[in-house]
TrEMBL record, chain A:
InterPro entries in the cross-refs: ABC_transp_permease, LivM-like
Pfam families, alphabetized: BPD_transp_2
Organism name: Sabulicella glaciei
The protein, known as: Branched-chain amino acid ABC transporter permease
Location in or out of the cell: Cell membrane
Membrane topology listed for this record: Multi-pass membrane protein
Cell membrane in keyword set: yes
TrEMBL record, chain B:
Major subcellular site: membrane
Name by which UniProt lists this protein: Branched-chain amino acid ABC transporter permease
Species name: Sabulicella glaciei
InterPro entries: ABC_transp_permease, BCAA_transport_permease
One Pfam family, short name: BPD_transp_2
Keyword line: Amino-acid transport, Cell membrane, Membrane, Transmembrane, Transmembrane helix, Transport
Membrane association type: Multi-pass membrane protein
Family classification: Belongs to the binding-protein-dependent transport system permease family. LivHM subfamily.
Record localization: Cell membrane
Domain of life: Bacteria
Spans traversing the lipid bilayer: 20-43, 50-66, 72-90, 102-121, 159-180, 209-227, 233-253, 260-279, 285-306
PANTHER family assigned: ABC TRANSPORTER ATP-BINDING PROTEIN, BRANCHED-CHAIN AMINO ACID TRANSPORT SYSTEM PERMEASE PROTEIN LIVH
Record CDD domains: TM_PBP1_LivH_like
Amino acid sequence: MTHRREALLALLFALAVLAAAFAVPWLRFVLTLALAKGIAALGVMLLLRAGQVSFGHAMFVAFAAYAVAFLAGQVGEALLLLPLAILLAALLGLVIGLFVARYREIFFGMLNLALSMVFYSLLEKFYSITHGTDGMRVPAVTWAGMATERVGGEWAVLVAALVLAIGFALLARLYLASPLGEALQGIKTREARLEFMGLPPRRVLLVAYVLSAAMAGTAGALIALTTRHVTPLMGYWTASGELVFIVILGGAGGVLGPFLGAIAYELVRVYAAASVADAWQLILGAVLLAVILFARGGLFSLLRGRRA
Amino acid sequence: MGAWFADNGLLLGLALLDGLASAALIFLVAVGLNLVFGVLRVLNIAHGSLYAIGAYTAAGLGAALGSGSLPAWAALGVLVLAAALVGAVLGPLIERMLLRRIYAEENVLQLLVTFALFMMLEDVQKLIWGVQPVHHDAAMRLFGTVDVPFGSDFIPFTAYQLFVLPGIAVLVLVGLVWFLRATLSGRMIVAVTTDREAATAIGINADRVYLLTFTAGAVLAALGGALSSPTAAIVPGVGASTIVLSFAVVATAGLGRIEGAALTALMIGLGRSVAVYFFPEAEVLIPYLIMVAVLLVKPQGLFGTLETRRI
């Protein structure tokens, strides 16, 4: 796809999101969550480029969400709070990335899983600090100095999510086209070749890991500002699986895929949970299986296939 | 150190006895997961669901047969029967219908297929057994208690947790090692694990070996669940926590190592119960701390090697 067509598609996508949120008020909440999860899924997709699947990225989502919950009292300004939470998530990503970038495939996946479960248990067990499974309320924040009421606040987070989504999509696109991003595929095919070219694979993976942690952190901060309530479950391993699911659903091709996947995922979830409360996971699981077995390229390629 | 032991030595002993039962259960689940990974090269996330379904079925079957009025060994037999049923029905079904289609795929997609299956089975459990805790402890009560001396006192332990569970785990370990080393089917499994192509070339039916192995793994998972059902109430989400724990065991031991899984399960089981007595907050952290510590020093796991032979 040419640059111009993709830019056009992204613009149409943004307009469609805004129009839908305007026409159907309850969609604002769903779409904000979907955009947030799309950003996190985009990060997971970067790692998938290198053939590595993380079953632990919900840790960064939960970490940034709790960072927002703790700091919102002192830093009441959302436009400061967001970058701060993202930065903290990126720093955590750097520390953990230094460790996990040494491992590949199953071990990489399992280590991420294990570390995220450690974090989850910490959130759950240290009741005196985190209020355990009850979670924490996020205090009200201002946007650019303005106190917002309910509807205005919802719009503010939605617009912030949209801007961040577009920003990160652009960043991911530039990164994947850069030598450092291209090298990710080298990790998937044969790492030794990267080394022969003088590129240290660990560092290549580490850069992608820190980026993906920052994106997952962005998602966590946005979710905390939308739901105004954070719980340890945000960091449970099934939440990490959800992110991988979204990537596959959208199709791991372009940077728009994860967002398409996230919106489809959230809509299916909302409808399935409303109509068959006890079976929404059953429906999502069946959808995931159908995508993997019958529509390997994901929703993105289905759309493209029809247009071509 | 010496003074600490004088004060807490007995308590430590109790903690270790307590940990035996949980180590036995962890071993049963993890060894099944490990066996399946060793042969099929698929890390089965739905393994935890088989554990949960085994537990629910055992509790249901026990209640239906009125195992409270049976002799103790018969009540234990009911648990094993439930596990065998679950494994023999679901194992072949999952392998034939689902896994067979994805052996040639990337790791990521294989993981996701089993993740999808896990999600679906979570809801199937809720639809069949509801969300209320299910408890049926007849088998454990029937075996009675054993008094363990504690200073001038006696502490009652259930014989089920002290002898039956560890006993079964040891039987399974010995049986499995014997099966793989000494029987024709077992050696066929080892052959397929080592080199599928060469094994097929000399006439081994690899498809059958895959089916057999997956079914055995499913029975082991269900057995872990069934045997755990008398010791604690079964709640939704037990499958999710079980699978993460067995992942930790398998990765710590080294993928595909059976004796390694036993030793690691023992380490983690004992470590957890010691933590319960001395630092309760850290209990859930222990398995992962052990795993991270081991992988930092030995990236391929305690017993993992880089050679192709895995079992």
